[in-house]
Structures are given as structure tokens and as C-alpha cells.
Amino acid sequence: MTYSYDDQNIFARILRGEIPNKTVMETEHTLAFHDIRPHAPHHVLVIPKGPYVNYDHFSAEASADEIVDFHRTAAAVCALLGVSPGKGGAGYRAIANSGPDSNQEVPHYHLHILGGRNLGALLPH
Ligand code: AMP
Q1: Most CB atoms within 10 A, among 45, 46, 79, 87?
Q2: In angstroms, rounded to a whole number, what is the distance separating the alpha carbons of residues 35 and 91?
Q3: How many domains is the chain partitioned into structurally?
Q4: Contact at 8 Å (CB) between 3 and 53?
Q5: Which domain does 25 fall in, by range?
Q6: Distance from the CA of 56 to the center of ligand 1, in angstroms?
Q7: Among 80, 47, 58, which Cα is nearest to 1's?
Q8: Residues with CB under 6 A from ligand 1
Q9: Which pLDDT belongs to residue 62?
């Protein structure tokens, strides 16, 4: 499977420092920042610094270090936001839109972390 990465996408531009972001957390391989149009009181995007277009691309081609760093950072963001159930928080939803049927807008892999209120059903029926 070949994935084509557009290095002009908006998250690539954020990673190059060409446009600003509200950073929540940054590690060697991962950046977390506030979504510009939040859908919940807490809405943070977690992205790998590497050029991966979606979840399956990242899972297939990222190094073990990148994958571990990404997931540990996402969990640390949840803890920082106070939503981790294992740390007394009320919970959160993690969503990775991937490809056309998901309506993914930005072709750089990202995990939405949403919380701060009851998020209702996963999808409208
Ligand atoms: P998706 O539909 O899963 O690709 O989600 C893309 C998300 O990126 C949306 O929730 C947008 O609000 C968010 N977004 C787009 N541009 C920016 C930006 N410059 N800074 C922060 N979030 C952004």
C-alpha cells in the first residue's frame, strides 16, 4: 500500500512553525494542541510529527518509538485535562477520522481528544 502525503496540509504547516497553534504538550515525536473549532469543553488534537496521512498509515509505517510516544502523549494529555477515568476523571472520547467516509478534513494523522461534558451517542442513528 502506498500513501501519498501532502506536505502543504495545515498540520504540516503547524509542525514547521509556519502558522501558530495553542500547544498543550510536545515530545520528540508528537505534538498536542487545541482544536481551533472545539466541539466540547476539552478538544485537543494529538498528531505525530512524522508525515503520516491517517491512522492506518501511521500504524503500518511509523516506528515503534513513534507509536509508543504518540499513545503515551495522548494519555498524558487526557490526564492533564483531568478526564482520565483511571485518575478520577469523567472520561473522554478519542476519534481518528481516516479517509473520505469519515470526512477527514486534514490529511495528516490526528487523534481528537474530546471531553468535559457527556458526549452522547457515538453517532446519530
Ligand atoms: P478532521 O475532520 O478529523 O480532519 O479534523 C480536523 C480538525 O482540525 C477539525 O476539528 C478542525 O477544527 C481542526 N483544525 C483545522 N485547522 C486548525 C488549526 N489551524 N488549528 C487547530 N485546529 C485546526
Answers
A1: 46
A2: 18
A3: 1
A4: yes
A5: 10-83+99-115
A6: 19
A7: 58
A8: 10, 19, 21, 35-37, 45, 97, 103-106
A9: 98
